[in-house]
């Protein structure tokens, strides 16, 4: 799978910010045994925590804590691994990291390097590594469940099934090519292979399209607040965020740039964006701000269209996005004299209607968490390769007048694209990018 196996022994603080109750320092690589023997007296039995004095290479006691040894290949990275569970003080951890760095062949791990080694040693595939990175980044319940589901090799099972279908199709084509010299062999390939290839192309295309659901779960359901100036957009953002994120004044045209907050609504990440009020702009800066509002609204999963019921100025919803019409400042307008029917009536000052609005946001977003059990592509990288695979199958289907060899080559390339998603081929150039987004110690 890779050119060379890493030989350095790496170490890092794998637990969080110091000071903490316990700090876990992790090691991986060939010198792990020697180092643990030296620091903990003897090697503990595999996978059993033992309480030891932890010493530097020169024999100075640094701490007392649990020591574990995981012999390769049955370890996270596939190499010999070790863990030192220390008291989580800054000086303790600094002393232990310094002592480790003093051993020959040992160095601090780079971001994601443990997981990278696990990948290079065949312990996990690339979607599995990407899912681990998502799991560590997860902030909401839906993100956590989705990331965890993606660590289960479900993608490998699905893509391997498709690759098997492609291999079978190519075998049938090979067989037909072998018989091509013999005059009266019926054209079995055309009858069986191409309808199957067409069906597979459609399945892959549909699968690629589900990336939208994955994006919403991972990156958040995108909600954009729009409306005329002074409709109360920034006030609503602040009320839902429960902090003063946006500037509020009674001056129309206060907000110029798009401002975002991430909310956790029923376990779903919801990104709420406040925008510049929409009107005939009075200056260049405002005009740019308004253009940004409209652009954001066009890309939104949901638009909150706010109207000040005390001073209504109708605003068009751009681009047919799904919208909730909200009448604001209900404290100023008695129910009988409201200008029209709204989906929701609120007052950010009294709090009226905010719970109902949160309920509507929850309703609009929670449906996406039901996709979590499904296998979805969850990186732009996956989608690009799926589209490439589908395109190759499309070429094979179109080239009816070309030789079977050429069409079989398209099928082979489609299979290669699927293999690339799993990280089996031609991914060296991606690894730095993928693993650098991890934290050090993972
Ligand atoms: N009475 C009352 N006043 C409100 C309410 N919400 C906002 N306001 C007031 O309306 C004015 C405008 O509020 P903003 O939140 O700045 O309105 P905006 O839509 O963000 O305005 P721009 O950024 O200029 O487009 C401020 O004086 C707010 O205090 C409300 O529910 N009731
Ligand atoms: K304002
Ligand atoms: Mg504003």
Automatic annotation (TrEMBL):
Positions that bind Mg(2+): 234, 255
Binding site for GTP: 230-235, 249-255, 274-277
Residues in TrmE-type G domain copies: 220-366
Chief localization: cytoplasm
Gene Ontology cellular component terms for the protein in this record: cytoplasm
Subcellular localization: Cytoplasm
Enzyme class, UniProt record, top EC level: hydrolase
Family of this protein: Belongs to the TRAFAC class TrmE-Era-EngA-EngB-Septin-like GTPase superfamily. TrmE GTPase family.
Protein task: Exhibits a very high intrinsic GTPase hydrolysis rate. Involved in the addition of a carboxymethylaminomethyl (cmnm) group at the wobble position (U34) of certain tRNAs, forming tRNA-cmnm(5)s(2)U34.
Family annotation (NCBIfam families): PRK05291.1-3 (NF003661), small_GTP (TIGR00231)
The name this protein goes by in its record: tRNA modification GTPase MnmE
Taxonomic classification: Bacteria, Pseudomonadati, Pseudomonadota, Alphaproteobacteria, Hyphomicrobiales
Gene that encodes the chain: mnmE
């Amino acid at each position: 799978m890779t050119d060379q196996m890493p030989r350095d022994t790496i170490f890092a603080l794998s637990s969080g910010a110091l000071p903490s109750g316990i700090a876990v320092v992790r090691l991986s690589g060939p010198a792990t045994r020697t180092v643990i023997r030296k620091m903990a007296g003897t090697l503990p039995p595999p996978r059993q925590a033992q309480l030891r004095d932890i010493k530097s290479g020169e024999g100075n006691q640094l701490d007392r804590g649990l020591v574990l040894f995981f012999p390769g290949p049955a370890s996270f990275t596939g190499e010999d691994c070790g863990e030192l569970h220390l008291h989580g003080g800054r000086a303790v951890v600094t002393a232990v990291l310094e002592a480790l760095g003093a051993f020959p062949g040992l160095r601090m791990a780079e971001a994601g390097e443990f997981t990278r080694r696990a990948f290079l040693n065949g312990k996990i595939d690339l979607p599995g590594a990407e899912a681990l990175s998502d799991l560590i980044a997860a902030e909401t319940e839906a993100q956590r469940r989705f990331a965890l589901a993606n660590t289960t090799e479900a993608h490998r099972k699905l893509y391997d099934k498709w690759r098997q279908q492609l291999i079978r199709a190519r075998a049938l084509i090979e067989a037909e090519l072998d018989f091509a010299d013999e005059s009266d062999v019926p054209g079995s390939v055309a009858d069986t292979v191409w309808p199957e290839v067409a069906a597979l192309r459609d399945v892959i295309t549909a699968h690629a399209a589900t990336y939208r659901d994955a994006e919403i779960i991972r990156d958040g359901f995108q909600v954009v607040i729009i409306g005329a100036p002074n409709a109360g957009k920034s006030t609503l953002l602040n009320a839902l965020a429960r902090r003063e994120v946006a500037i509020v004044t009674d001056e129309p045209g206060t907000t110029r740039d798009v401002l975002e907050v991430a909310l956790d609504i029923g376990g779903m990440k919801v990104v709420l964006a406040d925008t510049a009020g929409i009107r005939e702009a009075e200056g260049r800066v405002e005009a740019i701000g308004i253009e940004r509002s409209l652009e954001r609204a066009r890309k939104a999963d949901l638009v909150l269209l706010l109207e000040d019921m005390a001073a209504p100025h109708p605003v068009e919803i751009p681009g047919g996005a799904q919208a909730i019409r909200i009448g604001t400042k209900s404290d100023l307008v008695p129910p009988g004299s409201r200008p029209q029917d709204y989906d929701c009536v609120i007052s950010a000052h009294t709090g009226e209607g905010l719970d109902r609005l949160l309920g509507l946001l929850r309703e609009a977003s929670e449906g996406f968490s039901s996709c979590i059990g499904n296998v979805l592509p969850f990186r732009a990288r996956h989608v690009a390769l799926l589209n490439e695979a589908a395109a190759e199958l499309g070429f094979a289907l179109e080239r009816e007048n070309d030789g079977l060899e050429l069409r079989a080559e398209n099928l082979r390339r489609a299979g290669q694209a699927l293999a690339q998603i799993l990280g089996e081929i031609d991914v060296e150039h991606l690894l730095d990018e993928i693993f650098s987004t991890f934290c050090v110690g993972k």
